[in-house]
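To whoever is covering the structure queue this week,

Two jobs came back overnight. Logging them here so there's a record in the thread.

Job A:
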Amino acid sequence: MAAKQANSFAALPAGAKIFLLFAGLGVMTAGYYGGFHMALEDETASAQRKHGVLQQQLEDAHERQTEFLKLREELAGREALDQQNLRILPVTAEIPAFLDDLNRLAELSGLEMANVQPAPEVGDKFFVRVPVTLSINGGYHQLAKFFYNISRLERAINMEDIVLNMGKGKGATAEEESIRLSVSVRATTFRRSESK
């Protein structure tokens, strides 16, 4: 029967054979397109959409990373600034350290600390004043050196209400006698006020 069908195909005119060939190719192409190519096209479109979403997520992640690094750097800068500010304006009065600094600088300057009297703290909106009244004896240049050394401390300190009294110093000869000063001064440091 196959031989009969082959003979019947051979008996067909050339136009019919070409038509059947194109029809067969059309059916095979339609089958390929519908069964295989459409599925690949859908997968490709889906993969492209997924790639677009992932690309957008990656760009968002890079933007967030850049922002994070910028904020981390800003935070580190602010923490360093806050540490520096804590040395200038501490949270607590730290009176013993403050008095040690004053006494050490008076000795380095060659002054004699006669009296030290801490006074009550005075509150303000953003800071609290911590005053200490000092009585110091020494020469003019020693006093200038003391004030200069006070100004070099990291902590904020004001020297206020300075009262100078002159007297003669005692020396072995008249040339060694110098003018001695008896100084009364209020040294005021500051601390942060308590947040409410």
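Job B:
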Amino acid sequence: MKQSEKICWVVDAGLIPYGPACELQRQLVAARKERAVPDVLLLCEHPHVITLGRNGGREHLLAGDRLLAEKNIELHATDRGGDITYHGPGQIVAYPILDLAEHRRDVRWYVEQLEEIMIRAAADYGIAARRVEGRHGVWIDTPAGEEKLGALGVHISRWVTSHGLACNVSTDLRYFDWIVPCGIAGKRATSLERALGRPVACEEVRERLAAYFGEVFARRLEPVSLAALSEILAAHAPDTQGAIATAV
């Protein structure tokens, strides 16, 4: 692999549970640090899950263990930044595994680029998404007030990134009722479908997010299947083969 080519593998993991997705990221980060793989963009959706970031507290979780079990919602603590959020079907999640040493060693810049990707994708649908000072993610103005269209939370180790962004496309927004989204009281989540009042295909939005990712980070995108990635990571670290197979 020639680093000068500035490529990025794009992997569509489909609907994948949160735990295996985190394990896959962990293995990708280790491989990226050793330059065994180029930058990677992992795209997926998750079954219903609520995650707590490093700055999150259970006081922002409005559902007890019994209700979570009844609704089939998993709960995970994570090492990403940010507070509490929800992931579920109809929400496109993007996990970039980037070596910022080959981009720009600036966490604020990196976060703004992730926001820019969602802002550009929303603009394709005529939606004026924007940043809000002091809050991460992207927001839109609606008749009900300011609502959050996309969230983000990142982890950076030796300038290699993990976790990333979540853009609500056709998400069942009722699941956000069980949390205080991102720990901000009085603010609601929204989706592209709600904002437009019509169906929106996740596949279409996923392609737009990937394309803008390539533009923003100046990388040529190369599709790689999850099965092929499994083989590559297993060859890099044979003891991870079982974990990757579970993720597949």
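Note for Job B: The mean pLDDT is 90.

Please reply-all if you pick these up so we don't duplicate work.
Q.
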